[in-house]
Amino acid sequence: MQQIRTAFDLVGKARMLSMLLENFLEDMRRQQYLIEREVAQYMAEYENSSQADSIVRLIFRLVSWYVSWKPIAELGLTIHAAYTLAFRTHIFSIFPPSFSRGFKELIASTFSLVSASSPPPWVIPADLPPIDPPPRPDYQLWIACETLGLLERYESLISSVCYEYIEAHVLETCAKKWDEPMLPKLREWMTEKIVPWMIMPYARGARSAEEARAMLQGVGSRFDYHVCKTLCDLRIQEIFDIIIDYPDSQSALQDLKVASSRPGFEDFEMMVNRVRGRIQECLQRVDQRSQLVVNLRKANKKRLLHPGADTKDILTQYVSIIRCLRIIDPPGVLLYKVADPIRKYLRERSDTIRCIVASLVGDGESGDSLVDENEPIQPLQQMQADDFSDPNWEPEPIDAGPDFRTNKPSDVISTLVSIYDSKDLFVKELQVLLTQRLLAVKDGNYERERRNIEILKVRFGEAALQVCEVMLRDMTDSRRIDQHVQAQKSVPLHPTIISRHFWPPLQTNSFTMPGQFRDIQESYAKEFHLFKPDKRLHWLSHLGTIKLDIELQDRTVSAEVPPLEASIVEFFSQKDTWTVDELAAELKSVEKTAIVKALTTWLDLGVLKEEDEDRYKLLEIAEALPSGQKAATRAAADEEAPALAVQQQQAEQMKFIEGMLTNLGALPLARIQTMLKFAPGYDQTIEQLAEFMEAARREGLVIVKDGMWKLCR
Amino acid sequence: MDQIMSSLAPRTGASNKPAAGGSGAASGGSVTKRLQSELMTLMMSASPGISAFPRSDANLYDWVGTIDGPAGTIYSGLKFKISITFPPTYPMSPPTIKFDSACYHPNVDLVGGGICLDILQDKWSAVYSVQTILLSLQSLLGEPNNASPLNPDAAAIWDSPDQFKAQLMKHYRPIVDDAE
Description:
A: about 725 residues, elongated, B: Ubiquitin Conjugating Enzyme, four-stranded antiparallel beta sheet, globular, ubiquitin protein ligase binding (chain A), WH_DNA-bd_sf (chain A)
């Protein structure tokens, strides 16, 4: 050994060392077929078995070749470096393409190696040289890889393995889990699993924990960014369902907000690279946000804005979208972009206004109202110009479009009402709704309505709700007037007196009440006229209820019924048997179907009996009724009358149908449907029309024969 | 049903005056608009015994009408079909109206269905509408203008109702629904 060293010294002194090196490398090149053969052999083995083990063995084998050919250390770094370079160049040149696939597999398997290690992986070896036993199972492998220069060459491959690993984990743990914030958990997982793994490929040389941290900083922030991005992508994919689940999914939204708008190293402070974070923030914000908008719009279009969705559901979802996007993006740029198609669509729906109005007054039947009870009631907000004297003014976000309207933190209702250009429509619909509700109140307690009106006044302003105010006052005035009239002369009648000009048109199929009812009405009208000489009562006999005690031979029946029912039973006090036609003749303007319905009520109560087709007889002595019949007739009688507006539209539709059938003779349904395009605002489908015609047929207005509809004359 | 409808009349059909009001502009769009509004008015007004509707959804200029003979006249209980064709210049020019059902009447051509009515010729004005025409025709049935007859035979026997009725019924054919 000593001799060799002296020999080298001599050669070195003679400046012949470089020649010697060339010779050595030349020799090595000549021997390279040996390595080549082995590489081919191992790779063939891998290609057959697809086991990463072959790659491991190949790597260790190459290391032993490398070590055995290595020139002695005394020759200095230059020679060593030249040797290493030549060796690496050579092995890289002979790796077949399948090597990178195998290597990737191998790296992927190291994740499980880390978790299998028994000593806490945090421990960073105090000194580098191999120690026995190795601190962790994969230690040798990484050292071997480094020796061969594989880590540098395949750096991007290694990080891509890690990216894939992160993606898989995020998808597995976070998909459909919206009820708790996942980001902190993911960070924890990073600390426990990824960071220990990262030490080997990225911070082997570290002598202390601080040094390791410094080395991991850059790559760590990249991986953390990737965690955020993967979570973002996942949440964006799921955004529609997340919104449906709101408010249970609030945590997911928080995640999305943190992950999408911040680099988010709060708990990873050691890795924060501030400048880098800034750049990331901007980049990420812009591209992820547009992704979110595109995705949500697509989902809305596919799942929400189609005829199959209930208007109420669309509104609920819209409100949820408003709330959710406000969490993610307080300035409202995202919301503006997403909401536009929804608003357009809602504008086209005919019952949107009614739905909104119903929720405005907190319609009892619709379980959870769109309006948050806790939200302060504010006047409707109009668009306003930016207040530039505001010291807290902030410019619009960079991705806001030119037509972006800063509807600053306005409340949900303002947003809903702003779907339409004018609020007059709302006020009109509100009146109709109020009419229904006021007339339905029986106990004289209008507090609820008064409260609603007051709330709405704050929103819409006093002037717009003046009419509603009058309607409400009519109700209280009625009671006062009634008290006065009752004081003069006790009458068993308590009318609601409404001012005709301030109420929406009510159904006016009124009729003259027969017998004692008319006497009562007349005497009441007389008293009223004394009290208010300039006013006259016009009875709407079809509205209201009457409490009756019917005294029959063997029993007394008490009932609270609509006036038509009462009138009919009044007729039976004149004679025992009536036919429907006779009753219709007496009541003049009342439809037969209504009469039959009223008769059914009495059948149910066991007061009348249907003798034969359309003939009814008073039962002075009770008879047992088959119970099945009772239930059936009751169900038919309970059908609710459709809302006023719908009725109006249907009446128009019927007019047109009558018009065309009168003039064009019998028509098939399809023809009626196309001809109805002359009716303004007609928007029914042919199925709805079929239903409508069927209803008209039951009412005896039209008949159908061989698919041809014609009028009943 | 009728009651509800008539209650609607003031809302939608409050102005029986035609919308275009005789303005000079007679482009296709405004004619269509005018005809549509007339149809709406006519449908909503529910005048008893008169009715009209476009013959098909493709052509708004061609309507079919139905007139019931006014009660208390010799035509009471009878129904007549008419056809109404609007010129592109409507309402500056009157529509062409013909009886499709044979109508034995002093002012109606029994064969061709032509009608002699001043407001359909020289007395036409743009403020008239389908509805006013139909009402005029209906009253013409009961009160013919025997001074300018299109059907001299009918004019001659107008004063002897029995004979007239016999002639009328000889030519009258009830409208069959299925015959389109």
